[in-house]
Amino acid sequence: MAASVAQLRRGLAWMLGAMAALVAMNACAKVLREDGFSTAELIFYRTTPGLLWIWLELRRRQLSLRPVRGDLVALRSLFGIAAMAATFYAVRALTLVQHQTLHLLQPVFVALFAPLVLRERMHRLVLLALVFAVSGAFFVLAPLGDLSALPLVPALAGVAAAVFSALAHVTIRKTSETEAPELVVFHFASLAAVAGLVWGLAHGDFQLGHLSRKNLALIGSTAMFGTFGQLWMTRAYGLAPASSIAMVAYAAIPLGLGVDILFWDAHAPAGALVGAALLVVAGYLLTRKPADASQPGRP
After folding, report:
1. What confidence score (pLDDT) does residue 122 get?
2. Chain segment 127-163, per-residue pLDDT in tens
């Protein structure tokens, strides 16, 4: 029992670091989007610089580049690319706290998908948590109940990012049974870099004029924070159940709000904070377990 508690604590610590890194990545990506970078460019620049470092780490540890379950690694990569594309599209129109809070639908989706993919037990509170989470997301996007002010397409992209991210996360938990975290991240980054390059070239997105000294620093920061975030997240899911690890994502609310205030002077309205609170309640419900959950034969 002590070993499992220690593993859970390590997993939670890795996930907290991953959330901080991914919030920093989204902040850098938001600035780049405001400077005219396309979604395809961001996908390419986010993943390419870290490939050499991950490859060297695999070589240093004498790990094969060939995965044991290539199908699962490919599926995780595809889900991750879809989540990244939706995130980079949405983050330009939404504030960071809006995007990060909306993304907190993800733990609910993880709890819904985990029983299907991972055979983890799901209890009835998940459905109640879904009600709180959807209500919270509505308040975040339309704090005053004014649907006319709802950024519909970016909002839908944000929800899609949460869905694809949840699918990626439960797949990560599955791949952790047979693959090293660095291997999973390497294949994800490789496929994403190729996808971003092909997509960007097809639309003529890559422009040398974008590569100012400031933007090069932001590109490097986006790649660094994104690589560490993915690697730490992969390690976290290898240590504890997906539904428990996913709850740490709620740390993104204060982190995103702090970055919004510091760099964009964007204060969240009271209605949005109510929505964030409802999402936290949803997360709390997901951590609750029925008294009979540990008994065999119970649903």
Report:
1. 62
2. 787 788 778 777 777 766 666 666 778 888 988 999 9
**Which distant-in-sequence residues (6+ apart) come within 8 Å of 10 by Cβ?**
239
Burial class (CB within 10 angstroms; exposed 0-12, middle 13-18, buried 19+) of 83: buried
Q: By CB neighbour count within 10 A (0-12 exposed, 13-18 middle, 19+ buried), where does 264 fall?
A: middle
CA distances from 31 to 28, 38, 42, 218 (A): 5, 12, 11, 8
Confidence (pTM): 0.76
Helix (H) or strand (E) holding 238: none
| pLDDT score of 119 | 67
Contact 107, 283 (CB under 8 A): yes
Distance of CA 13 to the CA centre of its chain: 16
- 3-state class (DSSP) for residue 69: coil
> How far is residue 291's CA from residue 36's CA, in Å, rounded to a whole number?
53
Task: Determine what percent of the chain is predicted with pLDDT higher than 90.
Answer: 22
What whole-number distance in Å separates Cα of residue 64 and Cα of residue 179? 10
Phi, psi of 51 (to 5 degrees): -60, -45
Kindly compute the dihedral angle of the four CA atoms of residues 291, 292, 294, 297, in this order, to the nearest 10 degrees: -170
